[in-house]
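dude i think i finally got it to work??
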Amino acid sequence: MDTTPFEFKSRLILTELLGRRAATLPELTEGIRTVPLSSIYHHTHRFLQQHHFLSPEPPNDFAYWVTNMLNEELAGEMLASIDIMQFVRLSDLRKRFLELLEEYLKSAKQSVNARCPDGEEFHFMSSRIFVVPTGKIAHNVAEFKEMLKTVSIHAIYFHMFEAKLRLEKGDNDFSIWLRSAGKEREAEQISRLDPYTFTLEGLRDRLLKMVPNS
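look at this
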């Protein structure tokens, strides 16, 4: 079977302040509604990018701020309960955040206009991604597995997380390529894997166990 070679890629990140901030729950809700989708991605994956050695990962930025700066524990728990793994489109992820926040704002009996302490406002940010080649190109499954052992965790992150959600491919790059190489069973196993429950090195180890030797 002729298979297009797999090119491992990595990425560089430039974090940008959007010049928008929130001090109350309604302001946070309106911000989530209007900021670019790249900001939604940033605030739901920042912990994974910066604290890749933690497992399980801390909650998303929205849940953390609502819980710790507004002391709205119930709202924070609702936001933290969102299973990012279920989403393949950032627009749908944004919609889910808004549904939960709007539901809370309608039903909460306590004041939802309480302000956070001065200096603790939520600052909306975004991430600009620059995709860079690693120079590693696998022409078959055996080469793919050998290169997977040594590529950086940033390459693993790019192909497992960003390809599926930020680039909206519907699946991770590894599964897509393995299917093209005739490894349907292994591709499906990786597709069903919840990558959010691993450190990135732990994820590498699990992938290596799933990828066949040839």
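DSSP finds ten helices and two strands in the chain.
im so relieved honestly
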